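Cyclic nucleotide-binding domain-containing protein
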Amino acid sequence: MAPGDYLVKEGDLTTTVYVIASGRLAITRQSEGVAMPIGQHEGAGFVGEIPVLTDEPAPVTLQAVSTCEIHAIAGVDFLTLLHECRDFERQVFRLMQKRVRGLESFLRGRETMAALGTLSAGLAHELNNPAAALVRSLSELVPAIRQLENMNLTYGPTSPPQKPQSGSGCATSATTPFSRAGPMR
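Tokens:
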């Protein structure tokens, strides 16, 4: 297999397990129309077991990075070997579990990066667009003014208490509301 050749493409229905004798394969997964690298398989291993075991389409694309020597095993032969040899079965399921976890981790990472991208784009927009921030602030100001007007109509105007004038600290007789009729009894 020559560099650049595809062994399996994401979404392919495949019934073959491939043994990599030598060479290196790139593993990619489509995300929003872009092939995102997940990792690589390098010589002395096998690939393609997940679609054979699950009857699901291939979850990733495998493309040769270097010249590869690859041998194909029919899915039914792979399943027969899997059922007849318990040690092989355990190894396959451990490897499959590791690969599925890696794929799930990749997907979670992509979701996190997408959320952070959206957040940073919104923040950059706010920082670069002071007019939008001003409009948003003013739109919140109008309801607050209306509420103050309603409170004024409901409770009446009030003024803050007057501070005594400096000097004696006592009110003058001109501002005192009491009469000078005499002492209270």
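Residues 6-117 form a domain with the Jelly Rolls fold (CATH 2.60.120.10).
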